[in-house]
Amino acid sequence: MTDAKKGPAPGSAQLEAVAMRRPVFRPLGALASLFRTPLYRSATALVLTTGANAGLGLIFWTLAARLYSIEEVGRGAATIAALQLVSMLGCAGLTPALIRFIPPSSLSTRRLIEATYLAGVLLALLCGAGVLIASYLFIEPLSVPGYAFLGGVAVFAIFTLQDGALIGLRREGWVPVENSIFGVVKIALLVAFSAGGAWGIFVSWSVTTALVVIPVNLALFLKFIPAHRGRGREPEREFTLSEIGRFSGANHVSALLMGLPDFLMPVIVLQIAGARDNAFFYAAWSLVWPLRLVAVNIANAFTAHAADDESRAGDLSIKAGLLILAIFLPLVLVLTLGSHPLLRVLFGREYASHGDIVMRLLAPGLLAYAVVSLGVAMARVRRQLSRLLVLSAVYAAVSLPVSIALVSTYGIGGAGAAWLASQLGLAAIAGAIWSRGLFDRPADLTLVEEISPLTSTEDADRLP
To answer: Where along the chain do its domains lie?
Structure first.
């Protein structure tokens, strides 16, 4: 007879443990598995940064409009825009270098970050001096003294680069924290300096930048870099500063070529279609264009993780691609189907009537842009600088004439069609670059990698 009280059969505990590790297709289980995947945790932290910056930025400028005169807001906004432009021009190629080369570095990490900071500040100051001279000679001078503007430029360059350093050190969880603190403090200072006019807007921004830069970089140099050096893993090779310099230069040129057509699109519409149609176009553009940063942040997270172990780049690219599809497919659907009500609620009936077609054309381009961003990230991981430059040069050479031709023929609808067509064409080229790394992974890795709970003390220590 079989004993009813007999214990479990040999090996049943192991079978139960295996069964517990099988994927369960439940919403909460899937969400938990998502956040146990390091790449997805990193990407989520950076996407949250985008949301925090957008929300707190909206509050900042809404309060500015109520606390300051229209002229003061205009002058203050122009100064802040110049500050951001100069920072972009100075740091465009350096931030990707930090994200790409810090993960595999070891003893040279501190020297790499210090050299990048120095180069970024010098380039930003050079560009800032050019902006100051141009403003005095050709346009209205900025609302703050030149020395104050250049001081703000130097600090904001470090503020921009420190995010790249944190991502490269795999401390992505701190990026939304420090950016949220930056957003909240600058709002408080905006109120405190409301009697200072346009100067108050600039001071609230630049002083907050300095207040955030100091503690973040103390933590970065005193804790995060030593922890990165002491992780007990020797890199396959240390990259020289000349190699990193060439990488930064290529990325700088690529960023300018890729960004130029998008920055010029509202100008093209204004010159060809006129101010009234440009207002309708910009309403849709202002909703869709910032969402590109979601794709950029996913690509940055992929770059940091793939650079840490290039043999897993193909596997990680699949994970990043699935995350892009999970985010952008519903996002594109909502923007396409809800374009008219969104524009009507936010801007009014007339904007909805004229800008609806533009938004319906721009929205699908976001998915193509995300594919392009991942292709660019793969090229950075593989250090395929020639491919990166060809990709960006083709975009700049094709996008600008196509935009001019279609806007001249079809008005603002042509602008939306031009951006969509350019992104789809570029995505086809980027897809070819990306596909080269999809199947380039070690034989011991399978397509579906088991997701295990976060038990590594090293990974846990990286969380804020």
So the answer is: 36-239, 250-449
Using pLDDT thresholds of 50, 70 and 90, give the confidence band for residue 237. low
- Please write the tens of the pLDDT for every residue from 166-217: 998 989 889 999 999 999 999 999 999 988 877 888 899 999 999 999 999 9
The confidence score (pLDDT) of residue 419 equals 93
Q: Burial level of 148, CB count in 10 A (0-12/13-18/19+)?
A: middle
CA distance 200 to 3: 83
Are 266 and 420 in contact, with CB atoms under 8 Å apart?
Answer: no
Say what the pLDDT of residue 325 is. 92
Least reliable range by pLDDT among 68-82, 228-242, 271-285, 317-331? 228-242
Q: In the prediction, which pLDDT does 5 show? A: 44
Task: State the pTM of this model.
Answer: 0.78
pLDDT tens digits, 129-171:
988 888 787 766 777 888 889 999 999 999 999 999 999 898 9
Full 3-state SS string of the chain: CCCCCCCCCCCHHHHHHHHHHCCCCCHHHHHHHHHHCHHHHHHHHHHHHHHHHHHHHHHHHHHHHHHCCHHHHHHHHHHHHHHHHHHHHHHCCHHHHHHHHCCCCCCCHHHHHHHHHHHHHHHHHHHHHHHHHHHHHCCCCCCCCHHHHHHHHHHHHHHHHHHHHHHHCCCCCHHHHHHHHHHHHHHHHHHHCHHHCHHHHHHHHHHHHHHHHHHHHHHHHHHHHHHHHCCCCCCCCCCCHHHHHHHHHHHHHHHHHHHHHHHHHHHHHHHHHCHHHHHHHHHHHHHHHHHHHHHHHHHHHHHHHHHHCHHHHHHHHHHHHHHHHHHHHHHHHHHHHCHHHHHHHHHCHHHHHHHHHHHHHHHHHHHHHHHHHHHHHHHHHCCCHHHHHHHHHHHHHHHHHHHHHHHHHHCHHHHHHHHHHHHHHHHHHHHHHHHHHHCCCCCCCCCCCCCCCCCCHHHHHCCC
pLDDT tops 70 at residue 18: no
Q: CA torsion, points 258, 260, 262, 265, in degrees to nearest 10?
A: -150
At 433 the pLDDT is: 63
402 neighbors 422 (Cβ within 8 angstroms): yes
d(CA 166, CA 177): 12
* Residues near 145 by beta carbon (within 8 Å), at least 6 away in sequence: none
In whole angstroms, give the CA distance from residue 314 to residue 434.
Answer: 9
* pLDDT number for residue 19: 42
> CA angle, corner 122, sides to 247 and 385, nearest 5?
10
A 10 A CB-CB count for 154 gives: 21
